[in-house]
Write a structure and sequence with these properties.
This protein is an alpha+beta fold and 143 residues long. Among the domains are: 34 residues; 55 residues, no CATH class. It contains three helices and four strands; from the N terminus they run αβββαβα. The chain has a four-stranded mixed sheet. The longest helix has 38 residues. The protein is rod-shaped and about 90 Å long.
Length: 143
């Protein structure tokens, strides 16, 4: 058998002390990593749920609301607060801008009322004097 340890007692004690010091360092590191993992898991469990909807605020006096976002939107700014579904719908209906990335207006089934109704397209060839959108026949026109 190959024995690579020193033959004298003094060097053997030195090696033992050195290894005990390393084991103490390793045990301390194991304990610290376990403590950190426990803290991370507790933080994960205690984290409040992500809001369903948020409103982003502007800069300046009064910080007026600027945009409505879905709670999971990556484009929402840092100045925001959670809002309930009904408040998000009300803000959108009142004309507050919807985020173009998460489209809360689409998710909340809120149509853009600022544009007004879309006129129906003209489905027939307009005769002389006929205006598109005005589907009454021009004088002298027979269908």
């Amino acid at each position: 058998m190959f024995d690579d340890l020193p033959p004298d007692l003094e060097r053997l004690h030195t090696l033992r002390v050195w290894h005990v010091m390393w084991l103490a360092r390793i045990d301390a590191k194991i304990e610290a990593v376990q403590q950190r993992q426990t803290e991370i898991e507790q933080g994960r469990q205690r984290r409040p749920p992500r809001p369903e909807w948020t409103v982003e605020f502007g800069i300046g006096a009064g910080r007026p609301p600027v945009q409505v976002h879905a709670g999971d939107c990556y484009a929402a700014g840092k100045r925001r607060r959670p809002v309930a579904r009904d408040e998000a719908r009300r803000l959108l209906a009142d004309g507050l801008r919807a985020c173009t990335h998460c489209r809360p207006d689409t998710r909340l089934d809120v149509i853009d009322l600022s544009r007004g109704p879309t006129p129906a397209p003209c489905t027939r060839f307009p005769p002389q004097g006929h205006q598109c959108g005005d589907h009454s026949p021009a004088p002298g026109h027979r269908p």
